[in-house]
């Protein structure tokens, strides 16, 4: 008999595992003690039923290898809320060393911190499995790793004989790492203000018709620093960062742009936005008939990974009230989180925070880059481990489904920062994505094919095409500077090594179908911004 649906063996999940996974009310009380929650947080969790025993039992029973729910050892980090900069890093190293843990490569890690920065919350440090930190995705996400900074820079820095020499090396290298490829500045919108003048909205980006991004002045910070950050100009404070001070200007622009349906507040991290300022953004959107075209407010935030405890304190009640107000006015509040591994989700603070948000009408979604060492793994011979990498995302997608989190997207990062450390060829990632896609039920899959952003737009990799004697990739825009480009599937040459989708060679032509028009659009955008700036010079 033909068996096209091979029966899966649940090797890891035995009856014993499930029995061990059964949580009682007493277990949950003990877990809350382990997390040192305040009396107020415990009351919120109990009153709002944020940690039902049935949910914890099922999550741990299904994913014991990722779950921290049955861990009992005392946390290593208990005093400070977060550790920042070289000083914070050295404090962490000291605490670890007091527990017999040596992460090594300290000088190299400190070089990375001098070029970028370092920040880690108590929560994320306690999420790491310190008995196997080298293989822990969260450790890879937050701690600088040897080999990240280019070998010649590292060598020069290690061999430098004075502090001044080291500072010069760092300063020069920082200039090389500016993540704005020049084209992002073109996403700054302009509009004709009340006085009939062209005005540039300096702290915003408007690239695709439906969505306008705001880099608010309160969100220029992160709870912890991700090593691969492609917005490090924002979080490091480079002088070409986007900062939105004036909220009135945002509304003025939106009134003129009825095509915008979504406002994305990002940063840094939108989790830093205070309720009073958020209210200033949303009140006109709720009340002004000229802003009724706005249907969704998105908050781009990693708080659910780095500082989920914030959401289950009374300090967050003001924001929750505003989320509910939006929901009651038919405006979607989408909490755009960035989970890459199930480990980030399977702890009581994150689970309780997700449930609290959802109980206040919030749509919780996740979008994440596929990153080497974090959510993409290699075999000992250096080849991509397709099975292990795919399984990470399959488990994550199923955990999302159990918690009602929408799996928005997986994407390839733009080539910024220490891209060489995190990337793998597009061809390999395609294999991983294929496995994820075919193994997940349609409801649990990411909502779009894997994409990568370029100046032209977000390009999706649909898969491969075999023609006699040659192999090609099929691509399609998912978002584009000209939305009509999205209607077309186009072909490029298959390449085993290329890691940037936009660099794949066009098939049957010497340039991609959109290139001439893109150059024209970029030229016009550049002129419009320059004119706006000149008019604003007193
Ligand atoms: S949260 Fe976002 S902006 Fe902040 S460090 Fe991470 S990737 Fe960068």
Key terms for this structure?
alpha/beta, eleven-stranded mixed sheet, two-stranded antiparallel sheet, binds iron/sulfur cluster
Description:
With 538 residues, the chain is α/β, with parallel strands linked by helices. Among the domains are: 15-62, no CATH class; 82-176, no CATH class; 448-538, no CATH class. 40% of the residues lie in helices and 15% in strands. The chain has 21 helices and 15 strands. The chain has helices at 15-21, 25-34, 39-47, 53-62, 85-98, 106-115, 122-127, 137-142, 151-159, 163-176, 232-236, 247-256, 275-287, 303-306, 317-328, 342-345, 348-359, 386-403, 419-422, 426-439, 515-536; strands at 82-84, 119-121, 190-192, 198-200, 204-208, 211-215, 262-266, 296-300, 332-337, 362-369, 406-412, 451-453, 457-467, 470-480, 489-493. An 11-stranded mixed β-sheet has the order 5-6-7-8-9-10-11-12-13-14-15. It has a two-stranded antiparallel sheet with strand order 1-2. The chain has a two-stranded antiparallel sheet with strand order 3-4. Strand 7, helix 13 and strand 8 (296-300) form a beta-alpha-beta unit. Helix 12 packs parallel to helix 13 (275-287). The longest helix is centred in the C-terminal third of the chain and has 22 residues, at 515-536. The radius of gyration is 24 Å and the shape is globular. The structure holds iron/sulfur cluster (SF4). Iron/sulfur cluster binds next to loops.
